[in-house]
Amino acid sequence: MTFHPQPQAGEARPWAFPAPERGTLDNGLTVLRCHRPGQQVVAVEIILEAPLDAEPAGLDGVATIMARALSEGTDKHSAEEFAAALERCGATLDAHADHPGVRVSLEVPASRLPKALALLAEALRAPAFADAEVDRLVRNRLDEIPHELANPQRRAAMQLSKELFPATLRMSRPRQGTAETVARIDSSAVRAFYEAHVRPAAATAVVVGDYTGTDLSAVLADTLGAWTGGSAERRPATPVTADDAGRVVIVDRPGAVQTQLLIGRVGPDRHDRVWPAQVLGTYCLGGTLTSRLDRVLREEKGYTYGVRAFGQVLRSTSPTSPEGATGASMLAISGSVDTPNTGPALEDLWTVLRTLAEGGLTDAERDVAVQNLVGVAPLKFEMAASVAGTLADQVEQQLPDDFQAEFYARMARTGTVEATSAVVSAFPLDRLVTVLVGDAAQIEGPVRALGIGEVTVVAN
Length: 460
Fold this sequence. Notes:
Blueprint: E1 21-24, E2 30-35, E3 41-48, H1 62-69, H2 79-89, E4 92-98, E5 101-109, H3 113-125, H4 131-150, H5 152-164, H6 179-182, H7 187-197, E6 203-209, H8 216-222, E7 247-252, E8 258-267, H9 275-286, H10 292-300, E9 307-315, E10 328-338, H11 342-359, H12 363-375, H13 377-380, H14 384-396, H15 403-413, H16 416-426, E11 433-438, H17 440-450, E12 454-459
Parallel strand pairs: 2-6, 7-11, 7-12
Antiparallel strand pairs: 1-2, 3-5, 3-6, 4-5, 8-10, 8-11, 9-10
């Protein structure tokens, strides 16, 4: 029997995160473009400086409703006509609001890019914000809230934010608003928020893909360049303060067969020099199936299907900005365990953290993490959307255009001792707020016996 010759690996080629070209249109819109030959689906990200803490008092969620309403009709198209026009282009358009601002995302075949950009520009320039459409979006959002409250992961995240941040800080409240605040939103509130914060001078467009044969400069000038608006001053960022004194909050769900764990605190953002080492160390702790937390809680004890440790940037500002560095990230450990083993699982989790602090990471753990995080980066960024999303993150977080490329290089140079120090500092045993969503009658006693902090029970 003759077999086909076994394929052999080719010679490794150097790779670096693509560098964008930066420019500005006549209307003040900043543009980052990145030509990626072969990427026939072009990704466009629009970053609007409309942060959640700019929402008027009592109208939490108006940024989300505004973002969703951008594609629900314009001065030229009804909502149905706009959706049909997008479909004829083979394009998808999405928008969401988060603490740094509003993001509008477009993906379209390269051959239809001019038509899709014209529709995107139309949505940004002249959204209709029709009463009927805004009312429908408000009702949809109100329908979503009970489902979010019923979801243990979402409920834990809401409680952790409430515990960590003072009530005066927007980060303490749900990103998309509560039933009380969303119910107050109408088309006039949405339009007022739009007029106050959406303008080209306070926005950035990121375009990534293969635009061979397209005069992208001319297309941008004819579409997004026709969007007009006044000048904009950067909105000063409110300093992030948090209380991460060690304590436990149980959100009571009588009869729950599982307990949702969310353990977190506030840490540095991506401007801090410790960030690459922190990412590496956190990955070793709980970033994959072979991490320490999974190895103990999942493989050895069988308490859970998986536990993850992660760092998520909430808001980031450059240390050189007028208000100085006011950014923050959420450092957290998340997972679920069966109710009877909630106490033992937490005890073992604390043992993992204690052992890490005492003995440190191994060189083997560090090497695997570098290979998984740095070695697979070319695969992660094969698609134009992933490149565009990362560049948009850099814009939102006021990072230099070469940050991602430097980040991988710095992480590859990070040693085991440095990664250990970073992850131990990220998860100190006495500075972790633990939120448990589960049956308080079954888990309160065992959790109190652990002595990991004052225990409080709140209603669901």
